[in-house]
Amino acid sequence: MTHTLVLLRHGESEWNAKNLFTGWVDVDLTEKGRGEAVAGGQQLVDAGILPDVVHTSLQRRAITTAHLALDAADRHWIPVRRSWRLNERHYGALQGKDKKQTLEQYGEEQFMTWRRSFDVPPPPLDDSDDYSQAGDPRYADLGDELPRTECLKDVIARMLPHWESGVVPDLQAGHTVLVAAHGNSLRAIVKHLDGISDDDIAGLNIPTGMPLVYELDDEMRPTVTGGRYLDPEAAAEAAAAVANQGR
Ligand SMILES: O=C(O)[C@H](O)COP(=O)(O)O
User: Fold this and answer.
1) Could you give the CA distance from residue 129 to residue 41 in angstroms, rounded to a whole number?
2) For residue 94, which atom of ligand 1 is closest to its CA?
3) 53: pLDDT confidence band, cut at 50, 70 and 90?
4) Which residues are listed for substrate binding in this entry (predicted)?
5) Is 182 touching ligand 1 by the criterion CB < 6 Å?
6) Residue 201 pLDDT more than 90?
7) In this predicted model, what pLDDT tens digit does every residue of 70-83 receive, in sequence order?
8) pLDDT-derived band of residue 170, with 50, 70 and 90 as boundaries?
C-alpha cells in the first residue's frame, strides 16, 4: 500500500512580488498568488487527488493558499492541523531586506551562504525590530524555542517533530495528506524524504502554488525520488525563477 502526500508552497506573496526576504513576517498573497492557489487545487482535481486532511504553518500565506486550493477542489471541509513547525525558515536580520540589494551589498558568496547553505544562519533579528515575532501572540507558548534566525538544518530539526507526530500518523491512517507550507520548510521535508545531501539541497528550489505529489511506502520512503509535479514544465520554469531571485 502506498500513501499519498501533496506538498504545496503558498502562492506568490506580497513580499515575493517585491523580492524581499520574508521568513516569519506574516504577509498576504497577491492576486496572482491567489490565482496560483486556485489553479493548484484545480490541478489536484484533474489528477483525481483529493486530500483528506491538511497541515499548514501558522502563516497567512500558507493558510490562505490551503483554503483557496481546497475550496477549488470542493475539499474546504477537511480537518486542518496547524503547526509553527511548518513555518517558513526564520530569515533573521534579513527579514524585510531586498534580495537584490543584499546581493549587491554583500556579494554572491555571502548572499548564497545566507540563502542556501545548510548550516549557516543569517545574523539574528533583534526583538525590538519591526519585523520581529517576539511579541506575536501566536508564538507565545514557544518560550526559548522562538527562533531569531534559522538555517535549513535548524528548520529540519524543528520540522521533524511535527512530521513524525502529525503528518506520518495521518499518512499511516490511510489519509491523503496536503501540506501547505513554504519554500524552505518544504525543502526541509523533501531533503528528509529523498535523503538529499547537505551540499546538494542548495540546488533545490520549490515554486509557488504547484502541487508536488509523493507516493510513500509503509516506511515513508518515496516510491519515486523527487516525487512528481502535476505540471512538471511549469514547475521547472518557476523553480528556476526562484533560484534566480536577487539577480
Ligand atoms: O522567506 C522568503 O523570503 C521566501 O519565502 C523564501 O525565500 P528564499 O527562496 O530566498 O529562501
Assistant:
1) 36
2) 3
3) very high
4) 9-16, 22-23, 61, 88-91, 99, 115-116, 183-184
5) yes
6) yes
7) 999 999 999 999 99
8) very high
State in Å: Cα 28 to ligand 1 middle: 14
**Is 12 one of the annotated binding-site residues?**
yes
Helices (H), 91-201: 99-106, 108-116, 152-162, 168-172, 183-194
Strand residue runs (E) in 17-158? 53-56, 80-82
Cβ 83 vs Cβ 57: under 8 Å: yes
Is residue 40 exposed (0-12), middle (13-18) or buried (19+ Cβ within 10 Å)? buried
Domain count, the chain: 1
CATH of the domain at 109: 3.40.50.1240
Q: Is 164 exposed, middle or buried (0-12, 13-18, 19+ CB in 10 A)?
A: exposed
Q: Which residue segment(s) compose the domain that 170 sits in? A: 3-243
By annotation, the residues acting in catalysis are 10, 88
Q: Whose CA is nearest to atom 2 of ligand 1?
A: 22
Left, alpha or beta for 217 (phi > 0: left; psi -120 to 50: alpha)?
A: beta
Distance CA 144, CA 45 (A): 42
